[in-house]
Amino acid sequence: MKKRVIFLIITSIFLSFNLHAQKKLTLQDAIKLALDRNPAINAGESQVKVAKAKNMQAKSSFFPKASVMSKYLYTNNLPGMYPLEGVSVPVMNNGTPTGDEVILHPMAPFPNLDGDVLTFDFNVVYPIYAGNKRKNAVELTKDLDSYYNKNLNETKASLVDKVKTAYYNYITITEVIKVYNMALEQLNKHLELAQKAYEQGVRSEFDVLNFKSKIAGFKSKIIELEGKKQIVETALKNLIALPENDTVTFTGSINDIYKTEVYQSTVGLQSIQANNYKIQSLKSMMNLLDKKEKMEHAAKLPVLFAFGNYHFFHGRDFPPFDKAWRNGYAVGLGLKINLFDGNLSKGKVKEVKANYEKLQNYEEGLKLKLRFDYEKVTENINSLKAKLDAEKDNLTVAQKAYDIVKVGYKSGVNTNIELNDAQLNVIKIETSMLNIKKEILIQRAYLEYLKGQIQ
Length: 455
Known about the structure:
By secondary structure, the protein is of the alpha+beta class. The protein folds into two domains: 31-63 and 131-302 and 341-451, Outer membrane efflux proteins (OEP), CATH 1.20.1600; 66-129 and 309-336, no CATH class. Helices cover 65% and strands 19% of the residues. The protein contains ten helices and eight strands. The chain has helices at 2-21, 27-37, 39-59, 133-199, 205-239, 254-261, 269-275, 277-298, 344-410, 416-451, and strands at 23-25, 65-83, 87-93, 96-104, 107-129, 248-250, 303-314, 325-336. The strands form three sheets. The protein has a four-stranded antiparallel sheet, with no helix packed on it. Strand 3 (87-93) and strand 4 form a beta hairpin. The chain starts with a helix and ends with a helix.
């Protein structure tokens, strides 16, 4: 009985885990998971945290710096007082020499005593003026935060574009497989008719073999498509960082998504050049370099600071006071002036200016590339839409031709080759339309990426 209960518990846990592991994801589900889990996004968010930490560091320069230093030591060279060689000193009486002299032995310090020493210092330093270096340092870290955020948004937009591309490919392959399976089902029915007709002597054995050959070809194609579907599914799972053993199904219809997406407003070139995250990242980096140049200029300016010190010590005085405690304080102002640094600051300023000019050139080049990409994508979309309209007309004609041939084949008017050709023509157009819709959606997703849309 106990074994049965344990078995039921283990089975229920396994089933609940299996049900939990199996996921059905829409496009929006996949995008949300990718933005939440993808390692590249996590790395970008860590970069933003780095910028915030640097901002905290820069702001710390507006606060006084306090430090404590204490030392306890034992040394064998503390100063002791020892007599020097005697010196004759005249004896005076009311300022008049008496003619007598005495020998005096003055004392002088020599470092040969052993003893312990304890010192304690509490120091406070506050810069009053630093040529706006601190202010620009804080502003620089804000621009760094903006730069990392723009980079993160660029990574997110690029990731969304990749998820959409993989997702559109996945559901398109899924629907193409359905079309091929439906065609395979029709071919099997045609094979049955051909076999019956062959048994009745109406059709030749060639008809039967021909259908079997077509069926084998379709099965081979479906296996090939299933392999491609598996590859795309793996790519999607990697993008959303799903565990390898998770079972997932991506749901949706390319036709339904096309109907929803195709009527959205067109993304314009000006909108792309204004909102593209790469452009915004370059602008943030240029602002950052502007603050850095001001900081390098400030390095040549004087720094005024205030300081304070409180101290106490024991064991550093001459005997007989070496065991006494001493304490005191000191306050004041300090001025630091950099007279010459070997043109180091000047070289750094020139380097910053050169990098700024380089980014300006990058920005101009990127705008040209965005214009080219925009025109190329919009032209592709217009061309694909025209092709799709033509394929719709072709499908109507092909479907009608297939229906006519199918009736003619049953009555013996048309051959199996004509039937197969008519059916293949319908399949070809249907799969072509699915792929065209997929390509239009992929091109639109790329336009949204160029604009910097994250959705």
